[in-house]
Amino acid sequence: MVRAQTETHCRYLGSALTALQAAMATSHLVQREQPSAAGLDALMEQAHAVILDALNQELQVLDITTAQYVIIVNLANARPESIAALCKLLAYDPGAMSRMVRRLERKGLVTRLRSPANSRAFTLELTAAGWSVYPQLTACITRVLDQVLADFTPDETRKLKQLLHKLLSKI
Question: Is 64 helix (H, G, I), strand (E, B) or coil?
Fold first, then answer.
């Protein structure tokens, strides 16, 4: 039960981080028409930075960056059909993605395979080592979220989840 909740947390956080990254990448392009949204982009960017900084600290012992974490978690949960689809999902530059994938391959955490559907495309899969590090990654994000949300009441945490779900449904 705890493992299922942790995996759900990780999938949810991975989606939320991806949405926040996409929102931050395009926030300068969006014209604010609603006064209630004023300053929200800065708050979202600060929250994103705090979570990423705390996660980076947790991941150091595993020699994994947050960008690599996001790739591993998405490979474990979303199973994108190609590297290009993963780039699109995460809003990552293909060149940067290639470099991160090479690092993860050198660490033995992922493997690149030719796509059975398209011989010019590649898919990524977690290796046995990648699957074995995955529970440690979920433990890291759980510690970070517990720390970040420590001062939240259960009702505030539920409300935050509801609002994030609502935000994600619009993106």
Answer: coil
